[in-house]
Each structure stands twice: as C-alpha cells, then as structure tokens.
Amino acid sequence: MKFKQKGNTKVWLLVSALVVVGGAIMFLSDGMSPNAEDASGTIVPAERYRADQISSEDVILGDEDIVQFMQTDSFQYLVDNPDLVEVMNELDLGRFAKLMADDRFAKLMADDRFSQLMADDRFNELRADDRFNELRADDRFNELRADDRFNELMADDRFSKLMADDRFNELRADDRFNELRADDRFNELMADDRFSKLMADDRFNELMADDRFNELMADDRISRLMADDRFSKLMADDRFNELMADDRFNELMADDRFNELMADDRFNELMADDRFSKLMADDRLARLMADDRFAERLNQARAAQRSIQ
Question: CA 143, CA 53: separation in Å to the nearest integer?
C-alpha cells in the first residue's frame, strides 16, 4: 500500500522519526549539521501510535535527499529492525523531536566518552537492572539529579575515587552502617553545620587516623560512657568545654603524675564518694585552693612527708 506525505499520519510520523535518526547519524558521521530543508517534516502534538514494519517503497516524499537516504541499506536496516519498531511504537514523538533538535543531545552523541559508555557491558547491565530503572522513575531521585550541588558532587574526582574505594563499598554493604544511616539522630547530625566543620578540621581527621584513638573508641567502657546521659550533659556543659579549652587543664591531662593518679583505685573510690563530691563543690574549698598561701603550705607539707619516708 502506498502513502503520500499527507496520507496516514501514524506511518508518516514513524518514517519522520526514522529520518531524523538518519539525519543525526549523518550529522555525527560528517561532523556537520544537515540543512534545514533536509530535516524538515511535519511535527504534530505528541501521541502514541502503533505501526507495522514498513519499507522505503511504502512512503513517497517530495525531498530527493530524504528519498535517497530511504533507499540506503541503513534505512532498510532501521525499518526492518523489530526492536526499533517496538521502541518506536512506545515513543512519544513530540518529546523525541525536541530531543533530536537539542544541541546538547547532538554534542552528547558526538562525545567519544558517551560512545564508550554505551558500549560498556557494565553500563548495559545496569540499564537492564530493575532496581536501576525503579530509581530512575523515582521523583526523589529526579529532584536530586536536578540539584546543582549533586551534579557538582558527581563531577568531583574525589567523590569518584571514594565510590571506587573497596573500603567504602564494604562500609556501604555493612548492615550496621545502613542502620546508622536510617537513624534520624544520625541524619540530624549530618545536617548540622558544626559537625560538617568538625569533619573538615585537619586536627579532627588526624585524631580519627590515630591508632590509639581508634583503640580507645573500640573499648566497651568508652561505648558505655558515650551512651550515658550524664556524660552527654557534661559534654554539652559550657563550663566543661571552657575547661577543655584551657591550656593549663590540657597540660595537667598530659602530666604522667596526673594520669597515674587517675588510674589509682583509691583516688577513684574517693571521686565516687558523695562526701568528697560535696566537699569539692563547696565554694570555701575553691577559694582555699585558689589561695597561693594554701598552695605553699600544702607543698611544704608534701615535702616534709617525703623527707620522713
């Protein structure tokens, strides 16, 4: 059966789409765009249609260049290809025409990296994966793809290296990590600017890389301490943080004698005694401890004790 240009619209749309594909192929092969009259055709509102396989003899067009293209083996291959016909039957031609007219699409098709990606078996396996296609159809994923920050991240070499790192992939596959990611408290922490600044601090990263720190964090006693609400309150107390920032306190923490004292069971028993706690909380004792004369007398008493021993 023969069709003229104003004949059966569905068949004409199918052929027009195939001609546009052919024009794109020639554009990429020759390195230049086809003339406007060579790519002209009737564009109608997007509609879905059904069409059987056709041949170049089923269509009569006025443009000699298009007719010549339709006589080629390339065109015949296209119209005889059942996979392509199936795709075309499901195609929204309005969107397809806009895509083919988009300069960005033409540049993408001309990019060797895109061609290599399309030829990569791993990529094709990914495209065939139902989970990937479900992800592509997810509105949340498409919103993420439209976010400039996400695209900047995807273009960052450091992110690519991270994604290719076996250790990171092992972490991603760890159920404990996934449980942590699902925890609202963790996500709140990740969204906190203060935490982001901490993660970017070289000193913190040095600490995280220190074997001694990691051994400490692996200690069950530390885990129990971190889970204790009293400790959390202490860490949130401005007075404690001021103390931690005081050079004199840090010098004391680095003193071996102080650490020996902290490890002494008798001292820890004393620290656990409510009477001692009340004594340490007494303002009069604080004033006494701050008095240079008291410190001098205390040192004299210690010296006398050592001389007797």
Answer: 38
Identify whether the C-beta of residue 79 lies closer than 8 Å to the C-beta of residue 57.
Answer: no
Q: Which amino acid is at 77?
A: Y
pLDDT of residue 40: 45
CA dihedral 141, 143, 144, 147 (to 10 degrees): 160
Tokens 């990914």 sit on residue: 126
Query: Per the confidence metrics, is the pTM higher than 0.85?
Result: no
Residue 121 CA: distances (Å) to CA of 109, 169, 190: 18, 21, 36
What whole-number distance in Å separates Cα of residue 107 and Cα of residue 309?
89
**How confident is the prediction for the chain on average, in pLDDT?**
76
Q: Alpha-carbon distance 148 to 154, whole Å? A: 10
What mean pLDDT is predicted for residues 146-156? Answer: 91
pLDDT tens figures, 52-101: 544 444 444 445 655 666 677 766 666 666 666 666 666 666 676 677 77
Distance (Å, rounded) from C-alpha 36 to C-alpha 27?
12
How far apart, in Å, do the first and last CA atoms of the chain sit?
A: 120
H or E segment to which residue 151 belongs: helix 148-154
